[in-house]
Design brief:
CATH topology of the largest domain: Arc Repressor Mutant, subunit A
Strand order of the largest sheet: 3-2-1-4
Number of helices: 7
Distance between the termini: 82 Å
CATH class of the largest domain: Mainly Alpha
Structural class: alpha/beta
Largest sheet: 4 strands, mixed
CATH superfamily of the largest domain: Winged helix-like DNA-binding domain superfamily/Winged helix DNA-binding domain
Helix content: 25-40%
């Protein structure tokens, strides 16, 4: 009976333009994607001991390869939407907020109030902010795309420089991919001569 509560988590660490990332997945999907911020793997795992006291942690690039590959594509500007099974754990409200965050299009932003309204709780902007803070899957659940009602950048668990970097990165990539191909511009003009 006690085995039903046991969770096995495969974990891996990967580099990114924003520093080292810690990834962990359960049998159902990606559970954690966090900035390591000079923490060791041991400390990253220990930070989840209270919520997962009986978890078994096993290193495995193989089980996290798809996530690592998609992150690399994202950082190289070649992926806009992650296609990964996810297993975030939270309250019903948090899960609804995180689902709404995933619906924010790449390269765009939404205000906390807009997210609150989209999940049927128009007066819950602060609660949306708290759910953002507790987001266990940085980047994949794009809480960096949520800004203040006045358009200002507001708090981000990974730090404001990372939030700014992610927003600028996405805006540049979106602009680049939506711009007309200039490779063929002028081709017709040369024929007119």
């Amino acid at each position: 009976m006690g085995y039903l509560g046991l969770v096995r988590l495969a974990y891996h660490m990967t580099s990114s333009p924003l520093g080292l990332l810690f990834l962990a997945r359960s049998g159902r999907g990606l559970r954690f994607l966090e900035f390591m911020d000079r923490k060791s793997l041991k400390r990253m795992i220990a930070s989840h001991a209270e919520e997962l006291p009986d978890a078994t942690w096993e290193p495995s690039l193989l089980e996290l390869k798809t996530a690592v590959d998609q992150l690399e594509l994202y950082f190289n500007g070649m992926l806009q939407d992650f296609d990964l099974p996810l297993d975030p754990q939270g309250s019903e409200f948090q899960l609804n907020v995180w689902k709404a965050l995933r619906a924010i299009p790449y390269g765009t932003t939404r205000a906390y109030g807009q997210i609150a309204a989209s999940i049927g709780h128009p007066k819950a902007s602060r609660a949306v902010g708290l759910a953002n803070h507790d987001n266990p899957l940085a980047i994949v659940i794009p809480c960096h795309r949520v800004i203040g009602a006045d358009g200002s950048l507001t708090g981000y668990g990974g730090g404001m420089p990372r939030k700014r970097w992610l927003l600028v990165h996405e805006a540049r990539q979106r602009e680049r991919t939506s711009a007309p191909l200039e490779l063929f511009a002028g081709g017709d003009k040369s024929r007119e001569r």
